[in-house]
Every structure is written in structure tokens, then in C-alpha cells.
UniProtKB/TrEMBL annotation:
Residues reported to bind substrate: 191-194
Database matches in NCBIfam families: hemK_fam (TIGR00536), RF_mod_PrmC (TIGR03534)
Domain named Methyltransferase small: residues: 116-201
Name of the protein in question: Release factor glutamine methyltransferase
Domain named Release factor glutamine methyltransferase N-terminal: residues: 20-76
GO molecular function: nucleic acid binding; peptide chain release factor N(5)-glutamine methyltransferase activity
Keywords, ordered alphabetically: Methyltransferase, S-adenosyl-L-methionine, Transferase
Family: Belongs to the protein N5-glutamine methyltransferase family. PrmC subfamily.
Domain of life: Bacteria
Organism: Chitinophaga agri
PANTHER family assigned: HEMK METHYLTRANSFERASE (PTHR18895), MTRF1L RELEASE FACTOR GLUTAMINE METHYLTRANSFERASE (PTHR18895:SF74)
């Protein structure tokens, strides 16, 4: 099988599931992963034969994709803020909306000219947020926590691969005993689980079936669970004037902002993502 026929094989296999355009996008990602060649080199060397090992990889990848496995789990990598990160089913695949949250924090820290900001990320998953922040703000002290051992192992690997110093700790943020020892921070960020169980019926099969439920869902009757608990925690762990940044469920922008105001935060602000949806909230501790 040549590079060209392998590409066509992926597109034809996935087209009924994904449509031609998306099947083509995925085929490029898989071919780059398998051959290590850029798109341009794959065009130049399109008649080159795959090795037996590459053909085996190709078959395994197509079979996984046909079961709706996200392409990022198939290749084991995902791009975030210009970095290629390791991902696996222990971690949420980082989303572009979360890059916007990082951007907000980075711009605010630069504008405030904080010389050595202390920053905490709660529910770090792949470590996308703290790794990106440390890369952009090398003078910051960055700490990150998660309740999942698998996620923390992945996050540590990503920080090490990027040669960035981030401290990670296994903490259940819903348990005050678990976070009581944490120091005080200038900034706390979180993209916590925020999808109600009932919303799963409308979600893409590849997300519900493969991404970790622990990263996605909150009980239907308590959509703001993590925002309320992290809001309370941050009142003890932010310095006066420190800021809390959340990624939010687009359906609960006003409610999340009202919750922070009711907890005593000021300058509460909702930001929309590039799709025009309420996606981030910031509050400042008086
Ligand atoms: C929506 S994911 C966000 C992952 C990553 N920060 C990102 O933006 O791609 C939420 C994360 O919160 C973690 N989590 C869930 N419950 C938690 C808890 N009680 N304490 C700490 N982390 C928790 C999950 O393991 C998951 O990694």
C-alpha cells in the first residue's frame, strides 16, 4: 500500500461516518502520525510504500476510528496553545475555548505587571492550562491539582516534555480537608466538569463514549456544584485583589456570575468564546 492509497483508504472508510471533509482532515492527521512526514512530503513521496509495521498501525487506527474513538486518542496527541500535548482516555481532549481562557489570564497578568504571580489550576486534566500558562509566563509559580491519578500522570508528562516547571498534586477539590493545606494564590483558574447528565443525550457519541465522565459531568440537580465549591475555596486561598477565572457551561453564564457575586466577588465579568457563547467568567476577591 502506498502513501496515496493509504490516505484514500482512510477517507473512504470514514466518509460514511464523518462526511468527506472531516474524513480528509482525520486522514491527514493519521498519515502524519504513521509516516512522520509533513503533508508536503506526503505529496512528494505519495508513491512510497508503507512498511509492514505502518500498515498494521493504519489498520488499528481505522478500526479505532470506526468505533468513534476520537482521533486525538488514536494518535495520543492533541494541540493546545501551540504545543503538542499527550492525551489518553484519562484526560479530556483540550478544547480551543480553553485556549481563550488561558489567553484571558495571560493578558490580565501582563497588564497588571505581576512580577511573580502564584497561579493554581483546578481540575487540570492533561495539564493543558498550567503548561500553557507557565510557557507564556515563565516567572509565574504554577501549581495544578486533579482528583484523577491518570490525569495527573499525563499532566506531569506534558510539563516534563515541554521542560516547564509545574507542581502537581492529587486533591479532591470538593473536600475542604484535602485543599486546606494549599498556600495563597494571586490567580485561581478552573475548567471544571460542567455538563449535566441529561445533556449527554445531545452530545457527540465520541465524547460520551470515550472522554472521561469524571471530567465532563455534574449531577442534573446541581449544575453549579464545582463553581460554588471552588468559589468558596478561593475565598480562603486567593489574596485580596486576587482573581478567579472559570470556563463555564454556555447555558449557565448568568447563573455562574450571580453565584460569584452572591459569594462576595466583585468586578464579575462574563466573556464569550469565538462562537459567541458565554464561556468564561472572572471574579475578583475584595
Ligand atoms: C473539564 S475537565 C478539564 C481538564 C483540563 N483542565 C482542560 O481544560 O482541558 C475537568 C477536570 O476536573 C477533574 N475533576 C473532576 N472532579 C474533581 C474533583 N472533585 N477535584 C479535582 N479535580 C476534579 C477531572 O478529573 C478533569 O480532569
Amino acid at each position: 500500500m502506498t502513501i496515496q492509497t493509504a490516505f484514500t483508504h482512510i477517507v473512504t472508510s470514514l466518509e460514511p461516518l464523518q462526511g468527506q471533509r472531516e474524513a480528509g482532515n482525520i486522514a491527514h492527521i493519521i498519515m502524519e502520525h504513521i509516516t512522520g512526514l509533513s503533508k508536503m512530503d506526503r505529496i512528494v513521496y505519495k508513491e512510497r510504500a508503507l512498511t509492514a509495521a505502518q500498515e498494521t498501525q493504519l489498520t488499528a487506527a481505522v478500526n479505532a476510528l470506526l468505533t468513534h474513538q476520537p482521533v486525538q486518542y488514536v494518535t495520543g496527541t492533541s494541540w493546545f496553545y501551540g504545543m503538542e500535548l499527550k492525551v489518553n482516555p484519562h484526560v479530556l481532549i483540550p478544547r480551543p475555548e480553553t485556549e481563550e481562557l488561558v489567553e484571558w489570564v495571560v493578558l490580565d497578568v501582563r497588564a497588571a505587571q505581576l512580577s511573580h504571580p502564584r497561579i493554581l489550576d483546578i481540575g487540570t486534566g492533561s495539564g493543558a492550562i498550567p503548561v500553557a500558562i507557565k510557557k507564556e509566563l515563565p516567572h509565574a509559580t504554577v501549581q495544578a491539582v486533579d482528583v484523577s491519578e491518570g490525569a495527573l500522570a499525563t499532566a506531569k508528562e506534558n510539563a516534563a516534555l515541554q521542560q516547564l516547571e509545574v507542581t502537581f498534586e492529587l486533591i479532591d477539590i470538593l473536600s475542604k480537608q484535602a485543599w486546606a493545606h494549599l498556600p495563597v494564590f494571586d490567580i485561581i483558574i478552573s475548567n471544571p466538569p460542567y455538563i449535566c447528565q441529561r445533556e449527554s443525550a445531545d452530545m457527540q457519541e465520541q465524547v460520551v463514549a470515550y472522554e472521561p465522565s469524571l471530567a465532563l459531568f455534574v449531577p442534573d440537580e446541581d449544575a453549579l456544584l464545582f463553581y460554588r465549591e471552588i468559589g468558596l475555596m478561593a475565598k480562603e486561598k486567593l489574596r485580596a485583589g486576587g482573581a478567579l477565572y472559570f470556563e463555564i457551561n454556555e447555558a449557565y453564564g448568568k447563573e455562574t456570575a450571580a453565584l460569584l457575586e452572591s459569594q462576595g466577588y466583585v468586578e464579575v465579568e462574563i466573556k464569550k468564546d469565538l462562537f459567541g457563547k458565554d464561556r468564561m467568567v472572572k471574579g475578583v476577591l475584595k
